[in-house]
Amino acid sequence: MAKKTIFDKIWEKHVVHSQSGYPDVLYIDRHFIHEVTSPQAFSGLRARGIQVHQPGKTIATPDHNVPTKEQHLPIKEELSRIQVATLKKNCEDFGVEMYGLGHDKHGIVHIIGPNLGITQPGMTIVCGDSHTSTHGAFGSIAFGIGTSQVEQVLSTQCILQNKPKRMKIEVNGTLSPGVFSKDIILYIISKLSASGGTGYFVEYTGSTIQSLSMEARMTICNMSIEMGARGGLIAPDAKTFEYIKGREYAPKGEAWDKALAYWKTLYTDADAEFDEVHVFNAGDIAPMITYGTNPGMGIPVSDAIPDQAIGASSADMKKSLDYMGLQANERLIDKKIDYVFIGSCTNGRIEDLRIVADFVKGKQKPEDVTVWIIPGSKRVEEQAKKEGLDKIFRDAGFELRQPGCSACLGMNEDKIPAGKYCVSTSNRNFEGRQGPGARTLLVSPLTAAAAAVSGKILDVRTLVNQ
Q1: pTM of the predicted model, to two decimals?
Q2: Of 278, 313, 344, which marks where a domain is finished?
């Protein structure tokens, strides 16, 4: 019998129909939707006079356009208000469950799935959002889809999809103090480039990956898309099962025992073949920071900006550095910053907020630095307050806001002004991503915390033992 990867096992189990030369018809277990990519899909259903095929398998939440202050009041921005209201009406009309503003289950779509136990091993999961790959941390095939595909899933619970090639990325060894999962993935992308994973679905493995918490694994899988991959996953293990057990939507009783027995079969067989393999040493990974306008333009925080980034042309490099107001061979250490954003589906979980709070406790930010802490969900917000993290942030001069995508992208009120430098725990540093003319430097939560209380970029390795 041919040896199979975990990706092969899950994919084959969900193929409804396969024909040579055509995409597979793939059954989808869970469909997440939000306000940005779903309106046209619902309009398509109305135009054809059909209903959502399996409404119980679709979960909705508004996240991209929502304000992160005074969520009990009407949304000020007209387009955002219309989009959120449209999602609400569509869900009511088609019988889809929605967790709206103020709901105790509300939050960023890729954070509430794991929070609530909706995300489980062996599933196929889609959403009209590229960072759906986050859910792969649980040993699922999760990927983003376009609006026309959102309509496919709503109307049939299936999707037409070409099977990607398989890539293995193995990371072994012990991480140095001050280095986190965000640094791991930024390091990998800097080595493979922002297009190095194009056409592949990635399995992350190795002793370093296995040592990570579930929330840290989510950060790794979340940014798979930033190297062009279709998605990324990590085989489930005891940590995965322990994380899911007891959560609201997790199986209970005999159903749990049955699910667990299946989940334990989800691993890559020894000697299973991959189309491409990359191996990295955890000891080589330093705290990372991006300097350019794609996530592949990253360096160890203490290094100088290179003359050329892997996978970028000279013209791209020049354009990027001009936009960022930086130069080749310049060092970012001690560079003055204006904003710090801690949140997003990449680093808006409770573990991320704890890392920041532990570092900034008893410290104070400079007056000329603005710091926004945005929990990824109401559950994360409530937990942060229960643990007293809100007081630590308040005493440090940080603003703890309400859940949403916030300053990860310029689709709501939380925008970074033109020309200002924002140290961000989000996933993209594209031109204008955080607002027109905003300059984004991607980092881990700890590096962001250090920048927040110092007002400049620091190498956290010089501080973690102080």
Answers
A1: 0.97
A2: 278
According to DSSP, residue 293 is labeled S
DSSP state of 16: E
Q: What's the rounded Cα separation, in Å, for the pair 447 and 355?
A: 10
**Planar angle of CA 240, 243, 249, nearest 5 degrees:** 105
Q: How far apart are CA 154 and CA 50, in angstroms?
A: 10
Q: What is the largest CA-CA distance in the chain?
A: 65
For 332-357, the pLDDT digits (tens) are 999 999 999 999 999 999 999 999 99
Write down the residue that tokens 């609201």 correspond to: 248
Instruction: Establish if 284 belongs to a structural domain.
Output: no
Backbone angles phi, psi at 120, to 5 degrees: -140, 155
CA-based nearest residue to 354, from 383, 331, 328? 383
Q: Residue 465: pLDDT above 70?
A: no
pLDDT in tens, 191-218: 999 999 999 999 999 999 999 999 999 9
Chosen domain end from 278, 301, 335: 278
pLDDT score of 327 more than 70 = yes
pLDDT at residue 101 is higher than 70: yes
Closest to 404 (Cα-Cα) out of 78, 115, 61, 60: 61
Over 170-189, what HEC string results?
EEECCCCCCCCHHHHHHHHH
Describe the strand order of the beta sheet including 276-281 as a list of residue ranges.
231-233, 200-205, 165-172, 276-281
How far is 200 from 130, CA to CA, in rounded Å? 14
Domain interval for residue 118 = 6-278
pLDDT in tens, 383-395: 999 999 999 999 9
What are the backbone angles phi and psi of residue 163, rounded to the nearest 5°? Answer: -75, 125
